[in-house]
Amino acid sequence: MKGSALVFALLVMILMSAVFLVTLSVYKKVERDYITELKKIMVFNVTRSTLETVYEYLKSKPDKLRAYLGEFQAELKEFPGTVKLVLSEIGEDNYKLTCTSVLDEFTDTQTIVFRKKSNLFSYAVVALGKLNLSNVAEIYGNVLYRGESKLSVPNNFVLNGNLIVEKAELELSNNAVITGNVEVQNSNLTMSNKSRIGSPDKPSIVKVKENVVLRNNSELYGDVYAGGNVESSGTISGQTFENRDDIAFSNPPNFPPPEIPNDLPSPSGELVLWHREQTLTSGTYSYSAVKVQEKSKLIVDTSNSDVILRVGELNVDIDGIIEVKGSNNLIIYVDQKVTFSNNAEFKTPDGGKVFIVSDKNVDISFSNNSSIENLYIYAPGAKVTFSNNASFKGSVVAGDVSLSNNAEFVEPQSVPVEVSGESSADFEIVEWGKD
């Protein structure tokens, strides 16, 4: 019996030793995994915070930007690794800031691409009141929404750019896609029904003041910063930071009423083109209505100087064409309404720019296969509509903006044109993410 008891005791001790060794092995693995995860998070956070800090510093020194071109090391006393920054120029007034942090075997590289901008025409679309998006429409460029009603992005709508929603809630559904960064500065973000932000090869940065909710196979590729909670039954590929009270949001400019010259002549008489062609040369013109219809063409020659046109109503319809020759500007001041429809075209073959300016609550519409290029609309009180295969290359600042039914909107390069006394130079982020 004593022998059996001794064998049993030894067996128990062996088993206990085995359990102890397994427990110790598991503990060491958990400890290693914990330290590994801490290092990853530390490297990521150091890279991000250094990039943000240096970018804000460079913004405050616009006149010295070129002096900082090149590579330099950042010294962070509390970070045991290394931090390298590179500032390079990648085009006229376009810059790329790259930050690389290294700690042991862990490396993280992030970049900001930024450019000088005109405050007034630095977005593809600025909607100060309502923004209605639906039915397979598409925008190439950045969008700013300043209205208070919830912004819904449904029905296969695609935004190839960044989105800032200043006051309202943002909701994406039904295969809606945003390829760039997203800011919801004072409310919630909800995604559902296979909607998507970012992509695997180009992740986004999403910043939300309150809560983030993903449902029904929605996908978010990139990092999420939320002032509240993040609830996901979809996919989030990057890191999630919840209950943050230190989220840095963008600060878009104001869009005051435009300054209308006091010496413009009052609109009088009509210019009506019907199956014919007419040319306007340098100078100022004023009409109660300009109508270009039935395959007519209005040629505006800006070769020698800008052309200024004041109209009550501008109507281009049924294959009508306005063509701007020369590289100077055509500036159109509108009092009532602008309509382009039924294959109407606005052409600028020599690269001249066209500006539609209004300080009134005018209606502006582009529809039925109309094609517009190099048009910049600054009308903070206007209602602007794009529909039925309208193609638009330009920039819009308006009260209400609507896009639907295969409308395509392409943002050209920002232009430093002042239509208000409050415009000024600044910088804007074009791209922000992993390198």
From TrEMBL:
<protein>
    <recommendedName>
        <fullName>DUF7305 domain-containing protein</fullName>
    </recommendedName>
</protein>
<dbReference type="InterPro" id="IPR012332">
    <property type="entry name" value="Autotransporter_pectin_lyase_C"/>
</dbReference>
<keyword id="KW-0812">Transmembrane</keyword>
<feature type="transmembrane region" description="Helical">
    <location>
        <begin position="6"/>
        <end position="27"/>
    </location>
</feature>
<dbReference type="InterPro" id="IPR055729">
    <property type="entry name" value="DUF7305"/>
</dbReference>
<dbReference type="Pfam" id="PF23981">
    <property type="entry name" value="DUF7305"/>
</dbReference>
<feature type="domain" description="DUF7305">
    <location>
        <begin position="276"/>
        <end position="409"/>
    </location>
</feature>
<keyword id="KW-1133">Transmembrane helix</keyword>
<keyword id="KW-0472">Membrane</keyword>
